[in-house]
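Hi, here's the filled form for the chain we discussed.

Project: internal
Contact: R.S.
Residues: 173
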Amino acid sequence: YSHGSGIYAEMRERMIEQTDFAGNPYPIKAAVFVFQNFRMSLPNPTRTDQAIENMDFVLCVDTHMSETAMMADVVVPGSHYLERFDFNANWVTFRSMGLRQPVAPSWIGGMSETQFFLELGAAMGFRGFKSDPTNETDEACMQDEWQHFLDIGSGTAASPNPWGSRPSWRCRC
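And the returned structure, exactly as it came back:
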């Protein structure tokens, strides 16, 4: 489930009650936490522990051994923000975006969120994961998303390029 308002509390209850969002019986057997310390994201950590302990399998991708990682069956090393490609829209009142580029390689072989899901999808045999040139690497996937974001943005027919001068993928530092 994606991040959203109240989703952690709702998901925790589904994990404990073993039901779907409509209350129908639905066995939830595994949890994957990617760069999220689920145990410390909600009040009542005892109830969160109960939800995690209900799982047959828990995987955590993180940059450190968080409280959630300590409860996981498998911990995959994640990449620090200085070790990965990423871009995001900033939470401000004007149009802006940020491009993160690695400045150092991961000394532990940590994966970004994108890289983790590309590898997982490929390992599960899903079409398009690592077989499509735009999904071969973390950088290729991020660059494709960056290009799509610049092309579409929030432009209109009258003003198709909302960004004015186009930001470059490569830093000119």
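Let me know if anything looks off before we file it.
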